[in-house]
Design a protein that fits this description.
alpha/beta; Rossmann fold; nine-stranded mixed beta sheet; two-stranded antiparallel ribbon; binds adenosine monophosphate; Electron transfer flavoprotein subunit beta; ETF_b
């Protein structure tokens, strides 16, 4: 069974985000970019399933600029077998990503697609759900544990009330949450080896998908600065301030 893992190139989670001077978006020039953290978790999970004999091949795919090849090489260095880069300079929205992924799923026929729960740049949390809808396949979102057996997946989901365990039929889309695993680091020899692993280059047009934006960004603004906090001496004082100053009680 193949496992397909989409990986997105995003601003590194350690970077302090700055808004462009003209308010047209987030500053990306000279900013460190990395693999979306949830996608690292997906790659790790796919590799563990392969190492446990549940999968035969791990394919990673990224839709983005030529530099997304670096993100794919990182996934290959972690242990993925091959990569597909769908190259575009457009800011691709979740629906277009899901349509491209659907076309890849149709040709590759993976048994499992491990999508990140959300990309930390747009925080959409849409792609996995849209992909499952387009495929008409089972889906389990926000997985914190995953087990495969007999063409089924048992997924523990992180939900508002705690944890929920569900069984779904493969092929399925599973979106990964933070507690699923701790991704490995790529070793230097594996980084060298990854340079020679197969990487296929495609364009959205190869899949008949138009990636032009459907949404228009009107303005991007920094959040207003937070006011300094104060220390209170007692619970009574806290309750009093919440009532009279913050008016929240
Ligand atoms: P989102 O719905 O944008 O929050 O993204 C959720 C997940 O969809 C990400 O964690 C990735 O697994 C996948 N994804 C979104 N955009 C891309 C992209 N451009 N290339 C590859 N995977 C993507």
């Amino acid at each position: 069974m193949k496992i397909l893992v989409p990986v997105k190139r995003v601003v590194d989670y350690n970077v302090k985000i700055r808004v462009k001077a003209d308010g047209s978006g987030v500053e990306l020039a000279n900013v460190k970019m990395s693999m979306n953290p949830f996608d690292e978790i997906s790659v790790e999970e796919a590799l563990r399933l392969k190492e446990g004999g549940e999968a035969s091949e791990v394919i990673v795919v990224s839709i983005g600029p030529a530099k997304a090849e670096e993100t794919l090489r990182t996934a290959l260095a972690m242990g993925a077998d091959r990569a597909i880069l769908v190259e575009t300079e457009d800011h691709v929205e979740p629906l277009a990503v899901a349509k491209i992924l659907k076309a890849i799923v149709d040709s590759e026929q993976p048994g499992l697609i491990l999508v990140g729960k959300q990309a930390i740049d747009d925080d959409s949390n849409q792609t996995g759900q849209m992909l499952a809808a387009l495929l008409g396949s089972s889906q389990a979102t926000f997985a914190s544990a995953l087990e495969l057996s007999n063409g089924k997946a048992r997924v523990v989901r992180e939900v508002d009330g705690g944890l929920q365990t569900i069984d779904i039929k493969l092929p399925a889309v599973v979106t990964t949450d933070l507690r699923l695993n701790e991704p490995r680091y790529a070793s230097l020899p594996n980084i060298m080896k990854a340079k020679k692993k197969p990487l296929d280059k495609k364009s959205p047009a190869d899949f008949g998908v138009n990636t032009a934006a459907r949404l228009k960004v009107l303005k991007t603004e920094e959040p207003s600065g937070r006011k300094a906090g104060i220390k209170v001496k007692s619970v009574t004082e806290l309750v009093e301030k919440l009532k009279t100053e913050a008016s929240v009680l």
